[in-house]
Amino acid sequence: MAAKTAETDLSSAAPSGSYRDLLNLGYLARRRGDHAAALGCFQRALAARPHERRPKLEAATELRKTSRLAEAEALYRSILVDQPQQVRALAGLGRIAEARGEVRLAIKHYQSAVAANPARTDLQLKIAAQLRKLSRIEEARRIYDTIVTGLPDHAVARARLRRLPKSRSSGLPALERSWLERDTFTRADDWGGNLETLGMPAFGLSLLTLAQDFACGAVEQVKRDCILIRRRDHTKILPLVDDWPAFGAILERERAALPPRSALGYVPEARATGDVEMVECHREFVYHRASAAEMIGPSLSKYRQEVRRLFRSGARVEPIGPANLDRVLACNDRWYAGKHQRGRKTYYLGRTLWTLENLAALEPLRIRHLAVVLDDDVIGYAVSSHLGRSSAVFIYRRCDREPPGIAPCLLSEMCKRYPDREWINDGPAVRKPGLAWFKDRFTANADSRQVKLGWMKV
Questions:
Q1: What is the CATH number of domain 2-163?
Q2: Burial group, residue 231, by CB count within 10 angstroms (0-12, 13-18, 19+)
Q3: How far apart are CA 123 and CA 131, in angstroms?
Q4: Which of 97, 243, 250, 326 suits a disulfide with 102, CB 3.0-4.6 Å?
């Protein structure tokens, strides 16, 4: 009632168009929740003094609250032309970006506002909240820690700090240098080359995957004609022979030596005969390295356009390292969270984390890796290892669902990191009709030698 009385007094007593009284009328209208009236008063004040900053800020606030975001943004930006560090204008742009769902842009505006006024803990909290939406938990944690250090009794920061999820870890042993001296790795060119001669794709047999197997407790058994990698009731065969009759004899021998309910693999489905039960079969997508690296050919024209659009938007490619590892992990968390929401299994999460934890130590295995960065955030990454003399095998390629072009970008950029390889394996065909579908779309880029692999059930 007091506010209404004061507004009546101002309206009757003030001369028409009085700048100060128009501002006060706007504030009173805002207090009672009448945004239309408040906006009218602030716009009239702005018309009375077009160069004043305050009516622009207040009018922009009301426009933003009534979802007239484009008009509010224009006012905020007009203020920043003369005052590029105006905190309220920067914060207003952050709130507009947040309302539009542009999380990374909101962070940039809020960070600019905090840089201009580090005492604005409310804006620091907003930055942390947006970082949490991107799964950049460690960065959010550092902001909350900074607030609590300066203001130990800040209840909101302390409560949000307690609610942050714990840092993820694979829980697997770190890579040991001695692993690299195993026959599995020292003879990789031999058995990898034999796989290629036999026409077999490398699903589950890349050097990176085998290193993960050892971290999970696998053991190596070296024989005259093969290397066996045993992990619980699954045994992988790395062939030291290059013709099918010899390899078939190895399969029969090792199959007979395994206890019941064991699995032996990976075995081409077409080669399994008799009473053999094949389980967990997979096909892989395969490209000519040069074709994928250059993104040439009509069958890849859409991918090429998407990659160009991505780079025009400001994306860049850089190696994964200490400076961006936290954001790579955040990208990984977003990818697995989306997979979980779609009801798909996430059983490779631990192995992915192990790879990222040991990336530097994996360099002797010639592991290649890269991250795609946009708006200071990692929006996609890939880690892969070679196998044999002519193939590179993709192991992990994770990316956000938006914007388009990230996955093709990762494919083409990773191919460039294997200039001596003829073929690029792009991982298993998931929820697709298989290799036939792929060859129909990418006839000039698909390898006709690829077959379907799986485990032979004993």
A1: 1.25.40.10
A2: middle
A3: 12
A4: 97
Read off the pLDDT of each residue in 323-328 and give the average, rounded to a whole number.
Answer: 95
User: Cα–Cα distance between 356 and 362 in angstroms, integer?
Assistant: 10
C-alpha 213/C-alpha 44 separation (Å) is 71
How do the domains of the chain map onto residue ranges?
A: 2-163, 177-281, 284-448
* pLDDT tens figures, 112-138: 999 999 999 999 999 999 999 999 999
- Are 398 and 381 in contact by the 8 Å Cβ rule? The answer is yes
Please state, rounded to an integer, the average pLDDT across all residues of the chain: 86
Give the position of tokens 């356009």.
305
pTM passes above 0.85: no
**Alpha-carbon distance values, 80 to 87, 229, 454 (Å):** 9, 63, 61
Count of H helices and E strands in the chain? 20, 12
Phi and psi torsions of 447, nearest 5°: -90, 120
Return the CATH class of domain 284-448. alpha beta
